[in-house]
Specification:
Length: 329
């Protein structure tokens, strides 16, 4: 099977492998291959590789799957369910003994994991955080890498979903240098940071002061602090300060984004794209959101829906969706 690989001269192989391992982008499912003086290192994220390597070609190459890698399932009598976030594994188990067994299996496997966290509550409160049971590791703070960006965050203090990485990348690829972008519920910056790296001037607003501190840190980590303004507060209060400023808005608060559409209209410039996230029944996942946007923006703006996109299944018969909507005054 062909997979993306970094091709590097053999004498530079170990240094390159170490750099890629530190960035957590080596694809452990495949073997590193040597041929004709070249080392081929399989990678998971070519975009992230370009951020950490000055030299090294990225090529598509057939390489062997690893057969010696120990997985958590090898240590258990079942295939456990878990998510990876940086060097942490996240599980969701009510049975303490089963949770302990899964944590031990993950640590004994070849996964590059140091921390195992078990969900101890649902997302709750205005800041959308949850409680965690620390099964392994020192604390709940981690560093996550995604499409060439690096995010520090504390899962016990801020909201972050690794499942939305592909969606965030889809939106970021639409951003052009020089745009004015506002993330109305910015968190630690998973939209703001890639926008700024593409040359946009960004404002990130969040009600959670700890999320805003991480957003500022992440802007520094990624070299975009000069293009990011992080504001701790309610976006309804902030909107008037940036009236008519935004060329692009992100509204990723899918259970209640409709409550902030008046603020979105205040923020929107003469030609503004809004990425509006919603959760609706599968029978009509886009209709309610489009209706609410038109009710808030018309007749001041012409409203056109450019994309109706299903992000993922949220619950039985419910979908998490995004409407990419253009507002033209």
């Amino acid at each position: 099977m062909e997979v993306p690989c970094v091709r590097v001269a053999r004498e530079n192989g170990e240094a390159t492998r170490t750099t890629l391992a530190d960035a957590d982008v080596i694809d452990d499912d495949y073997e590193i291959t040597v041929e004709d003086g070249w080392l081929y290192i399989p990678v998971t994220d070519p975009d992230a590789v370009r951020e950490v390597l000055e030299d090294g070609d990225i090529v598509s190459r057939a390489v062997d799957e690893r057969t010696t890698q120990t997985t958590p399932a090898d240590r258990l009598a079942f295939e456990p369910s878990y998510e990876r976030l940086g060097r942490a594994a996240l599980i969701d188990e009510d049975d303490p003994e089963r949770a302990r067994a899964i944590a031990d299996a993950i640590l004994e496997s070849d996964l590059p994991v140091e921390t195992v966290l078990n969900k101890a509550s649902k997302v709750k409160g205005e800041t959308r955080v949850r409680d965690w049971e620390l099964l392994a590791g020192e604390d709940t703070e981690i560093v996550h890498r995604e499409y060439g960006c690096e995010f520090a965050l504390d899962l016990a203090a801020v909201y972050f979903s690794p499942r939305l990485a592909t969606e965030r990348h889809r939106v970021a690829e639409q951003v052009a240098a020089g745009e004015h972008a506002v993330d109305m519920f910015a968190g630690v910056g998973p939209f703001v940071i890639p926008f700024a790296k593409r040359g946009a001037e960004c404002v990130g607003v969040d009600i959670n002061p700890e999320a805003i501190e991480y957003l500022r840190e992440n802007a520094r980590r990624n070299g975009v602090a000069d293009r990011v303004t992080a504001i701790n507060g309610d976006v309804t209060d902030v909107a008037t300060e940036y009236r008519g400023w935004a060329d692009r808005l992100v509204m990723n608060l899918p259970h209640s984004a409709d409550e902030f559409l008046e603020s979105a209209v205040t923020l929107a410039g003469d030609d503004c794209v809004v990425h509006y996230y919603d959760i609706q029944h599968e029978d009509d996942p886009f209709g309610p959101g489009e209706h609410e946007i038109r009710a808030a923006a018309e007749p001041e703006y012409d409203v056109s829906v450019e994309t109706r996109h299903t992000v993922r299944s949220y619950a039985p018969h419910e979908l998490n969706v995004c409407l990419d909507v253009r507002l033209e005054r």
